[in-house]
Design goal:
- Helices cover 59% and strands 13% of the residues.
- It has nine helices and five strands.
- By secondary structure, the protein is α/β, with parallel strands linked by helices.
- The protein has one domain: P-loop containing nucleotide triphosphate hydrolases (Rossmann fold), CATH 3.40.50.300.
- The structure holds adenosine-5'-diphosphate (ADP).
- The site of adenosine-5'-diphosphate has 19 residues, from helix 1, helix 2 and helix 3.
Length: 184
């Protein structure tokens, strides 16, 4: 199974990603986690990415696509869940081209529908280094401008499934499983 998770920062992608990969035995690929690992390891890439992440901006498509390509080449045989990627139209198009070449098209894009007031509340209580009020505002603006257009992009492919991302973690997981079980 090959899945993309789409949603604003704080929409619950990371939390639900853990439950999804456990149930379906697929690999979790989070570009946020990959980037934080580069930062922690102090690599050149990490140094470039850190300032951008701390300011709430998007790391360049080139860097992110390079990371994804490298991860794909390591093999993702049973399937994968992409979390935090694609985040721009250029990333989505590059992903489609990459997967077409591998003859492994996406099965489904899950969009987590949560309103911005709820998201801001959640991010403020999460307390990660990039979760202060200014950065949150910036990340949500970037999301609106660069990532939200992917909703209609995936709608156009007929692969978009919207899941209401409000409720308990278990309730939301169940909604997701209902959608994904139909794709097995
Ligand atoms: P969140 O779920 O709060 O959006 P992530 O862990 O997905 O957090 O990402 C943290 C930061 O890493 C983003 O704010 C951005 O700077 C960078 N990042 C992650 N994924 C991408 C991507 N696909 N393209 C560009 N930047 C990214």
């Amino acid at each position: 199974m090959r899945i993309v998770l789409l949603g604003a920062p704080g929409s619950g992608k990371g939390t639900q990603a853990e439950n999804i990969v456990a149930r379906y035995g697929i690999t979790h690929v989070s570009t946020g986690d990959l980037l934080r690992a580069e930062v922690a390891a102090g690599t050149e890439l990490g140094k470039k990415a850190k300032a951008i992440m701390d300011a709430g901006g998007l790391v360049s498509d080139e860097i992110v696509l390079g990371m994804i390509e490298e991860r794909m080449n390591k093999g993702l045989s049973a399937g994968f869940l992409l979390d935090g990627f694609p985040r721009t139209l250029a990333q989505a198009e590059a992903l489609d081209a990459m997967l077409a070449k591998l003859e492994k098209p996406l099965d489904c894009t899950l969009f987590f529908d949560v309103d911005f007031d709820e998201i801001t509340k959640r991010l403020l209580s999460r307390g990660r280094a990039d979760d202060n009020e200014d950065t949150i505002r910036k990340r949500l603006a970037v999301y609106e401008e660069q990532t939200a257009p992917l909703i209609s992009y995936y709608e156009g492919t007929g692969k978009l499934k919207t899941v209401k991302g409000v409720g308990s973690v278990d309730e939301i997981s169940q909604r997701i499983f209902d959608v994904l079980d139909a794709h097995r």
